[in-house]
Specification:
Blueprint lengths: L5 E5 L2 E9 L5 H7 L9 E7 L2 E7 L14 H8 L6 E6 L4 E2 L5 E2 L1
Antiparallel strand pairs: 1-2, 2-5, 3-4, 3-5, 6-7
């Protein structure tokens, strides 16, 4: 099932699923694992290893040496995730609300 660009809401915050490798994204699992510190990050990457979801917050910065720069995502996946493991990228949205169809309303 293709879920890229799915827009959804958790705790009053709107997110967009922008990449979903091997159908890793499950909204219920995301909600269960989401902690307050991650709600401040503009990007959240979820990877699955040994049937467990791990969430990691990322930022967008000009500092190419920052390991949590979303531009360094490929390095993170290669270094910290099991080879070929399912993962997804969620982007925090700024405004709007979500309709029942999963599309953003302005």
């Amino acid at each position: 099932m293709e879920q890229n660009n799915l827009i959804f809401e958790v705790d009053g915050i709107i997110y967009e699923l922008i990449y979903n490798f091997k159908d890793a994204f499950q909204k219920e699992s995301f909600e269960e694992r989401l902690v307050d510190v991650l709600k401040n990050k503009p990007f959240i990457v979820g990877d699955i290893s040994h049937e467990k979801l791990r969430l990691t917050g990322f930022v967008l910065t000009k500092d190419s040496t920052n390991s949590k720069n979303i531009n360094n995502l490929e390095d993170f996946i290669l270094e910290y995730c099991n080879f070929g493991s399912p993962f997804f990228v969620v982007k925090k949205r700024n405004s709007g609300s979500v309709s029942n169809t999963g599309h953003e309303k302005k």
